[in-house]
Amino acid sequence: MQDERAAPDLPSPTMAELAREAIAHLEGLARVVARMQGLAEPAGAPAGNAARAEPGGLPSGSPHLDRLTRREREVLALLVRGMPNRRIARSLNITDATVKNHLHAVFVKLGVADRTEAVAKVLAQPGPHPGPHSP
């Protein structure tokens, strides 16, 4: 006797169907990333900003951001641009471990738990924001 609550047997998707679905998801993700980059880029900034951050690339006047050291602001600016730790380390000529230490200090000073919250907090501040990095 078959359980009536069980899902009906559905045909397994083919590799081509899975590939088409994956491509559709990736295209959607690319559109979201492009919109996010447009939001993060300061008005009038040239497209494809350089990867090196300057401390002034973050909005000033926020008590949270003003508590950061110059290096923490540089690391945070690169984080806002969407860079992973390894690329931040290479851009600033420091080790991955040092980037992690700076990020931990940034998270504590901003009162956030992770990268996403840190970026959201920075982008919520009025003023210029670092533009996205070039892929």
List keywords for this structure.
single chain, 135 residues, mainly alpha, Arc Repressor Mutant, subunit A, 6 helices, 0% strand, elongated, Sig_transdc_resp-reg_C-effctor, DNA-binding
User: How many β-strands, per DSSP?
Assistant: 0
What order do the helices and strands follow? HHHHHH
What low-confidence regions span 5 or more consecutive residues with pLDDT below 50? 43-56
Rounded to the nearest angstrom, the distance between the terminal CA atoms is 57 Å
Shape: elongated
Strand residue content: under 5%
Given helix and strand content, the structural type is mainly alpha
What's the tally of helices? 6
| Gyration radius, in Å | 20 Å
Keywords: DNA-binding, Transcription, Transcription regulation
GO molecular function: DNA binding
InterPro entries: Sig_transdc_resp-reg_C-effctor (IPR016032), Tscrpt_reg_LuxR_C (IPR000792), WH-like_DNA-bd_sf (IPR036388)
Domain HTH luxR-type: 61-126
Plain-language structure description:
- The protein has 135 residues and is mainly α.
- The protein has a single domain, classed as Arc Repressor Mutant, subunit A, CATH 1.10.10.
- It contains 6 helices and no strands.
- It has helices spanning 15-40, 63-66, 70-80, 85-92, 96-110, 115-124.
- α3 (70-80) crosses α5 (96-110) and α4 (85-92) crosses α5.
- The model is unreliable at 43-56 (pLDDT under 50).
- Residues 43-67 are annotated as: Disordered.
- InterPro entries: Sig_transdc_resp-reg_C-effctor, Tscrpt_reg_LuxR_C, WH-like_DNA-bd_sf.
- Residues 43-57 have a biased composition (Low complexity).
- This is DNA-binding response regulator.
- Keywords: DNA-binding, Transcription, Transcription regulation.
